[in-house]
Write a structure and sequence with these properties.
Blueprint lengths: L1 H7 L4 H39 L3 H11 L3 H29 L1 H5 L1
């Protein structure tokens, strides 16, 4: 394995961790980040809707209570666009790091 090869070449424990173990674990780490970002965005929006007086949650509540539906739907489109942008950036990062998974 790569760890044994690193030991044979005289790498210290920290060099093995930094140069072999972490790059080998990056695909799984990035997949976890991608999944957690999706859930974090959902959690932030739902949390703000339930308890926030400012931010997106406050705007949602204000627009709904005054029946400003065009602003409400515009805000939903903005939130979707932000969510898809964040998720797309994380997926792009995952694709850039995916070559480690193919070389293992």
């Amino acid at each position: 394995s790569l760890v044994e090869m690193g030991r044979n070449f005289g790498c210290s424990r920290w060099k093995i961790i930094i140069w072999i173990v972490i790059p080998a674990a990056l695909p799984e780490i990035i997949t976890g980040v991608r999944l957690s970002v999706v859930r974090a965005v959902k959690g932030v929006i739902v949390g703000q809707i339930v308890i926030a007086l400012i931010g997106f949650g406050g705007l949602f509540n204000t627009y709904l209570s005054y029946f400003l539906m065009e602003r409400f739907w515009a805000l939903i489109i903005v939130v979707f666009a932000m969510s898809f942008t964040i998720i797309g950036l994380v997926e792009q990062l995952e694709r850039r790091i995916a070559f480690y998974a193919r070389t293992r």
